[in-house]
Amino acid sequence: VKHTHTYTQTNIYIHTQSGIQWAHFSPVFQNRFKSPLRIKKTLSKTGVKNIVLVDGVRTPFLQSGTTYADLMPHDLARTALQGLLNRTGIPKDAVDYIIYGTVIQEVKTSNVAREAALGAGFSDRIPAHTVTMACISSNQAMTTAVGMIAAGQCDAVVAGGVEFMSDVPIRHSRKMRKTMLSLNKAKTLGARLALLGSIRPAHLAPELPAVAEFSTEETMGHSADRLAAAFGVSRREQDEYALRSHSLAKRAQDEGLLSDVVGFKVPGKDIVSKDNGIRPSSMEQMAKLKPAFVKPHGTVTAANSSYLTDGASAVLIMSEEKALALGYKPKAYLRDFVYVSQDPKDQLLLGPSYATPKVLERSGLKLADIDVFEFHEAFAGQILSNLKAMDSDWFAKTYMGRTSKVGSPPLDKFNLWGGSLSLGHPFGATGCRLVTTVAHRLKKEGGQYGLVAACAAGGQGHAMVIEAYPQ
Amino acid sequence: FCVFIVAARTHVNYELKDDVAVVRLNDPTSKVNTLSKQMEAEITQVMNEVWGNAQVKSAVVISTKPGCFVAGADINMIKACKSAEEVTSLSQEGQKMFEKIEKSPIPVVAAINGSCLGGGLELAIACQYRLATKSKKTVLGTPEVLLGLLPGAGGTQRLPKMVGLPTAFDMMLTGRNIRADKAKKMGLLHQIIDPLGPGLKSPEERTMEYLEEVAVGVAKDLAAKKVTVDKKKGLIQKLQDVVMGFPFVRKQIYNTVTKKVMKQTKGLYPAPLKIIECVQSGVEKGSSTGYQVESENFGKLGMTAESRALIGLYQGQVACKKNNFGTPERELKTLAILGAGLMGAGIAQVTVDKGVATILKDTTLEGLARGQQQVYKGLNDKVKKRGITSFERDATLSFLTGQLDYSGFQKADMVIEAVFEDLAIKHQVLKEVEAVTPAHCIFASNTSALPIRDIAAVSKRPEKVIGMHYFSPVDKMQLLEIITTDKTSKDTTASAVALGLRQGKIIIVVGDGPGFYTTRCLAPMLAEAVRLLQEGVGPKMLDSLTTSIGFPVGMATLADEVGIDVAAHVAEDLGKAFGQRFGGGNVELLKTMVQKGFKGRKSGKGCFLYGAKSKDKQVNPGAEEILKTFKLTAPPAVSGNEDVQYRLICRFVNEAVLCLQEGILPDPIQGDIGAVFGLGFPPCFGGPFRFVDTFGADRLLQKMKRYEEFYGNHFTPCQLLQDHARDPSKRFHK
């Protein structure tokens, strides 16, 4: 029955293109939409499967080195998976595939998706793989899932992301590693002793995972500072934006809007149920901080940057038919998405500026059609630079080969429940948080279209259009 | 009523940003800012206004040209001077102006983006605070010594105080360019800022604005005493200061530096010694003496022949970095190179990093692998020196394709052959290439002596055939000699010059003939060198006699470097082409050496022995044996050291002048540039033509006549030289 119902709705949507106010057809619709005068079509396309987000959860995002400090990444991912199982009640073998995104890999669990799934109570017959694409790794996990479903190979896929910055792989130096590997092959005691004798104090210096972009050797914070300077974003603007992010996150947390968070009983510690990095400060306090990357004249500080975070997220994605067949009421349609990439030196963090107009074009939408924006906040300076870039005809023409600007998202629709600056940013896990938040905000605010956009190391970016599921 | 007549300022203006005066430099008549009379006058005027304005609490000096702060003093201003006193007074004016800035009652910040050289650096170091962009274009340095001059506007006095004696000497005596990050470490800069990428304006424009914003911020902080101009000194620096406090240590330094300079310049260049004198006077006798010595020495140097020669070379070099043949009809996108030897791979190396798709073709895998490794190594050395990143190296290498066949040649816009110097082989590859390349494709030969018209004889498209004579090692030698035949089209020439300029070359374009210009001048001098060896001047003595007149490499060593086989080849070919004039030395001597395997450095033995790592070069006993069998008696009247040197020079110069007379050379400027940058003709002479002007054609003629008596027509002066000797008003350079 539900099936037929949906298709009928779809038909109604299509009619709206000719200007019929479909909202008037049903009192249910009128209830849901606070502004019933909107005339919006569905983004469903003929020949393309409708793919839905059934639900999404995440562990609390904690500053690294706090309560999660003694765990391993798969522990966090497993917790997110268990949370998803509990929240959706999906049968343990109803999932066809599991995909996780992560950035800094724990070498012991390099396919963290599989290690997490094995302990999460899912059937051991469900294949799992791990993807990586810097800060848009879980976006990549989700779109991989969308691709598998669209191609008709799967019906239900779990996608997620995890990042664990409390522990990172610190390696021996290359020279030491070479010696140690040769040691394995040395046959005689003499040969072994000779190798051991070749070790010098310098060989013992450890190698930390690089915080710098590999191709340019520039740290992301440094690039963000240059970006802010290039777009003339002041220190004050950045601090104000960061303060906004923390204040909005605090309000969302206090009002219980962050319902994607599932509690986590950390072994040997208390139950964690809240993000712990949300700290609304004052402009005066923030102004006292010294620049963190470009010294002494830079503008990016610890207070207007996202911080190192531990956390994991998971979403359940299905074809619409499957979701309805299993009796679910999906939260949203996952519609068009794009990936973009550009110069990793000077445009490292401009992904959203490139991705936004492209994905809107693909969906046949204008910026004004979007009700809910969720952009990944790597740095306040990065967000503000992107807003300025999107509002510049010159930038659109000179660098993006477009005829005009796409426009700057209005702040009253933008990251209203906080963002990566305040909630935290576990690199691999942020994408799922953004998508789930869009779905929740669409419902809460009564919007129809949402837009997710994010930048990522390597000069890459992503955007996705999300459509509210009719209630 | 009254009328104010204010001379409009064109080069310098200023604007108030709150209480900071932003002084902007911009010479509207040039791509670069130079300290011309106009510029200096306006700086003085503006600074006086700034100092007179009670509102102003600090100042920023900045250029509005993105790639240039101030590139140096105006050379023509110095050239125009008629006496040492005039040059001295130029120096004094500069000194005064910068002293006022140094003693400014308000802090002055120099904000540097682009070249900050010579007088530009002296301006910057007179300011209280310096910050610069970390752009690739930002370089600091004191290149005056390369023009035979010294930093004459207080540079010799301020630099030692700022960076210490040893570093100051290094900077002023080498004239080398220093990148911003290095300059900060040396204590030359207080602060550096990273260039910006795209924003709401072009990166260049916004970077300039940003530099100014940061500089204004610093200026305000300096005025408010929130920051100080003192730089924190490291332990090493402090130790060095203590050590330099001892007079005997300083004395030791002056001595060591003087010795080093004498060893390197053979006393042929006066400027380095004067620089040492200026620094020493300032440090030991106080700055007023120092300034006086500096300006006097600057005046003296300004009138020396060496300085005029070096300035001539500098300006000639600028002239040879232009394309006088117009814009090519087609942009060169794909270049194919035949032969992955030293030359072929060298040409590939200087091409791939300009974004030109480059095919490197060889006939064997071993040869190809060696060539590709050479290109890789060349780029990787830059990575090691932090000139480029490993990613830039990899991206650059992606433009290179190594192969053994002609696939992809249908896309080639130009082919440069660097195969063995044999006309039959050249003909063969030319035919093969023309069969697979498009009609617009240019065929360039990197031959060093074979006439291009002979190579073009088998071409279906002779208008597309040209000579491009590179010098080894290609990535180090700046010269490219382009040879056109009477059939070569103008567009072909324009394309070849355009490529050479992209490769960063200094280019001379000469007419066709055996040996063209450079090889043709070298051959008679080489013949004379062989003659000298036969006459009992040993290889070591020959080296010492040639280096002591300013050749960077001794003649015997040069022969080893070029290859004795190549030298024999050239001597024989050109000997046949030009007859007796190219005689003197016995070609058989060279041939015998080749037979014995003494081919020069590449075979481990030539005039000298190679391989052993000892610093002192050993003469090859085998070569000495051969020399004995070819021994000739030296005529004592013309075999003194000086005569030996003049004999070598005369033969070179006479042939060069003959090339001009015959129209091989289009003008004396290209002749001088080719001789100095391609063959190492002593830079202190400024090239063979300037040598004739300075030395006097009549004097040269007398010497040649004397040598002619003993050696015959090797020393017969050419007509043009005779004309110049007869009429002293005739000069090659105005």
Please provide a written account of the structure:
The complex is a heterodimer of chains A (471) and B (734). In chain A, 37% of the residues lie in helices and 15% in strands. By secondary structure, chain A is α+β, with helices and mostly antiparallel strands. The model of chain A is unreliable at 1-37 (pLDDT under 50). In chain B, the strands form four sheets. Chain B has an eight-stranded mixed beta sheet with strand order 13-12-11-14-15-16-17-18, sandwiched between helices. In chain B, strands 1-2-3-5-7-10 form a six-stranded mixed beta sheet, with helices on both faces. Chain B has a four-stranded mixed beta sheet with strand order 4-6-8-9. The longest helix of chain B has 22 residues, at 641-662. The radius of gyration of chain B is 28 Å and the shape is globular. The model of chain B has no long low-confidence stretch (mean pLDDT 94). The chains are: A alpha+beta (471), B alpha/beta (734). The A-B interface holds A 215-217, 222, 226-227, 229-232, 294, 296-297, 343, 345-347, 385, 388-389, 392, 394-395, 398-399 and B 191, 193-194, 196-203, 206, 210, 214, 217-218, 227, 389, 391. Chain B: InterPro entries: 3-OHacyl-CoA_DH_CS, 3-OHacyl-CoA_DH_NAD-bd, 3HC_DH_C, 6-PGluconate_DH-like_C_sf, ClpP/crotonase-like_dom_sf, Enoyl-CoA_hyd/isom_CS, Enoyl-CoA_hydra/iso, Fa_ox_alpha_mit.
